[in-house]
Amino acid sequence: MAEPGQDEQHTRHHRRYERYDGGSPEAERLVFERLARELTRVQVRNRRAGGGGLARAFHAKAPVAVENARLRFRDDLPPALCVGFAQPGAEYPATVRLSNASGIRQGDGSPDLRGAAVRVRVSEGESHDLLATSHPVSHARDAREFVAFAKAIAGARSPLRKAFGLFVKLPLAVGPGPAVRMVRNIRAATRHTVDSLANETYWSRGAILWGGAGPVRYLLRPAPGSPPAAAPDRGDPEFLRREFTQRLARTDVVFEVCVQRYVDERHTPVEDASVEWREAVTPALPVGTLTLPRQELGSAAARAAARRIEDLAFNPWYTTDEFRPLGNINRARKAAYQAGSAHRLGLRFVTEEPLRNRLLARPVGAALALLNRYVPWHRLPVSLSLLNLVFLRKVLRRLNLIDTEVREAPPRAQPVPGPIPERLRTERSYDGTYNDLSEPGMGAVGSAFGRNLKPDYRPDLFDVPNPVTVSRELLYRESFVPATSLNVIAAAWIQFQVHDWVNHRRHKTGDRGVEVPLPPGSGPWFNTPGGPAENVMRFAENEGLDQPGGRPPILFGNSASHWWDGSEVYGADEQTARFLREPGGGAGLRLENGHLPGGPNGTPLTGFNDSWWMGLSTLHTLFAREHNAVCAALRAEYPSMTEERIHHTARLVVSALIAKIHTVEWTPAILGTETIDIALRTNWQGPPKSWLSELGLWLFEAHSLTGIPKTLPDHHTAPYSLTEDFVTVYRLHPLIPDDFELREHSFGQRLETVGFQDIQGAVAETRIRKTGLANALYSFGIAHPGAITLHNFPRSLQRFERDGEIIDLSVVDLVRTRRRGVPRYNDFRAGLHKKRLRSFEELSKNPETVARLKDVYRSVDEVDTVVGLFAENPPTGFGFSDTAFRVFILMASRRLQSDRFLTVDYRPEVYTPLGIDWVEKGGMNSVILRHCPELAALLPRGASAFAPWRTVRPTGNGGLSDKS
To answer: Secretion signal: which residues (predicted)?
Structure first.
């Protein structure tokens, strides 16, 4: 991430030479990222045409690759060109790759350009990549033309297909005039006969900065006295390699390194790579030599070196600021080359959409959108509603994924990236780095929350209407409204999950706070235990991320990783994760008599213990035991496996099992319809074995014909992150009851009745150890959570002590959502492609609720997002609103689809065969029964463990106790 202000300085420094596509570096960056994605698709089409694995998008075949070359600058290097590593007499090791330019591996006699890639190694942290091609100008003026040309001829091996690409597809993409120029340039370049790669001249075509000397183009030309090539056998597809091998076996191959200096924009343009810098205007000045020493290219050592070079990713931006690439094509190269090399090396993936899906998507999507104006998707027959959800998700993926990270724009020079730590190819990192191997920081701890909707930052409405008034009139639990299709384990589960997914860091209490004025007549508030009565509510502010350009302070980093990695159990950093493990580096998690070990403040030692209560303790304890059970099974099955490998494999297994439980059990439980049950099971294991379902997906979204774990990672239109809108729809605090009955599971005897305050914070562990895990699960399994609706916010959370402050969590929810720029409810639903409301009556059918809404809000457009989500009448069977569900349907798939450990690396080689079997055969019931087998007869039949359990009728003294 670029530091604030650096990009602006960079822009000012190079404004003299460069003009940005779209008018700004940021606008241009977005163009380049799109073009980079298009080039990865070119690689796929070329792979089909060329056979074999993925190759470079260009310069796929390298007849020559040498590691032991040397670059030496002249002793009489002109003073004006003495910049950085370019010093008189300086000599450096270099790696050289000489190639054919086509993206399809083909015989050396095919008409083609040739290329040279050179990596000059100056020191451990400094190198410079020089890239050049055997024609002085590019066929393309800029990156858009370059990619259009690549797409036009992608996968074209036959003359007929190439002609169709050049004379039909290319003019349609760029226009007739540019297409004619590009074809003319290519013909001139490929008409040249090549006898030896050692006798070719290679031009950079694009300019680079040469320190204070300004822009230059460089070229590599055969050194004077280079011997000519013998007449080659052009029928030999490897004749260029054979010639170079024979030449290098006899003598060194030497190229003269020259630069051409910038004169003016007319004769030596920086932005237009299709204009030649003619030597009559700017002579080629020799500055050094590149020597490939005499050697045997057929030796084992040389062949191994060639293989290593094939795995290198050359990029002109692997340099220093003094030698920064210039011009549109060069600026595009950073994103394009990084994407292409990551794709080629298996670090980034491309999921192709079949042509039939692309052709049918537009008319069918339009027809469904028209149908939804009259009939909501959830009122359609099951098959049609499933199809509707497929197309709704397509729309949401296209329009409702917004990247918020501060990206570098314009591109910046950088060192060659270090190698990926080998262990992180098969295990999750502690902080979420290297999940996406092509962008190691994606989704890691500290990464910014993204957006599903454009932020609406309105400081003038932070306190309008007063959030305390909103809470008291619309959220306060007047009487408990139960959700009778669920149990309290379901309520604890979502908090257990949210603690893995999202956590906004807060300033320390008293350092920086938000103040909410109390409305007249509401009475005083005590902000700290034993503190004075005040006329404001005060609580700690979130720590925001700085942004350049004076943007509003609505960007926040996630203190958890964004990935589904079990961090609530394992911790979000290495120190915590290792501390939680068994002493001596054991694979298991520390437990005391089957319970979490106690911490210094009374809350247990676990990955995340904020807002702790007995329901959370139950699930943390259960899955800590599950981790240790997986460890024991792995030890028994694979005796040679180290404790370190066992620990990380068990973490993979438990995290995937949690993801599966949430996908196919918790979500269908809270969204209790046949459509959702089928949709979520399809997400994990593919569609039901029905010819109609499979035909529908084959026609409209073939990608869903298997479960997501059998697909490739796909971030769709933005790098992966969880979003502020996602955080908003998961504000599900009404699920928590205010009081609980703890019961014994064998005879149904009531142990005690407790309030939420009696089982939260430091006292929670005492309660669960006294009650026992089996009894706690039973007690929560037979109890209903609250319904997610207005007038049902837990009273115990409206005066809640946390970190030395007393907060009303309902007010905090409202304030946080407003201050983070989440749009108000009507804009929120409209942004998710639902019809805007024109009146309060359209929001709720309850006359009393409508009256209260009118008392609190001046218009329906002012209704808070959280309030609107709770007020909305949900579809039949749904535990929350259809508007919230739209964020869910987008992000629920995304949490699986983006994660390589739940897609391409969800396989026996990474998880072990035992681990995959554990996840596939496991579920919430199996986890509970593994650790509490005595509960077998109490779990619901034919339903998940989140549905109400069978209640044991009290007998004997237990029954008398209940009546007392």
So the answer is: none
